[in-house]
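Researcher: Go.
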Amino acid sequence: MKKKPQLSSPIVIIITCILFILYLLVDYFNIPSILGIDVSRINTDLLGIIANSAIAIVVFSLGYYFVEQWNIKRTENQRNYASMILQNIYTDCLDFMKQLKTPQTLHIIKKTCNFDESTGKTSYGSFIKYLYNAPFKNESEIFQLSKDGLLPTEQLKAYLDIKTRYQAYIGGFAFTCCAFEDSDKNAKLMSLTQGEPLSDQINEQLSILLNLKTRRSNHAPQHHRKAV
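Model: Structure:
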């Protein structure tokens, strides 16, 4: 089914301006008299009303057009900002997960946590708590952007799922390092069984965000893009 053609605001403004300029030219050069038309029979008051109406239409259309473009650009910037926050969060998650695999990090974890064999509970130091929460310091903005309709529900669900899995992975990794004698071997095994699938999920979301940004750029109006 074919879409009906619609006049955009710029076209309406251009057409109105052309008609108004034509009217001024006709009046200035007195073209009706040149063509032998009796202008005394023309209702000049009506023409004045039409001219004033044309000016009002141009002013209103210009105002509407610029407000509309500002709102479009503002919404686009907010959506790009939401994508940027998610990208930063996911990149931080991947970076922290890589840090866990280094001998230095394993050593720090062992020194800053304490496993109580009698209760089976583990107390963690500030380092693990930092790794646990650091990537999500801008979470309040994520929820606000989602509430404002600038972050799709699917992306919010993916974010919450990744956050849950990431924190479970950090907690499990720290527990493994503290509770078992051969902690290095167990930590590497956990990295393979849980860390790699989580990394794959995060990289998949990063790819989705990148493709979404590319589509937005391709669908943006030409006057929004810089000339290459």
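Model: Strands lie at 113-116, 121-124.
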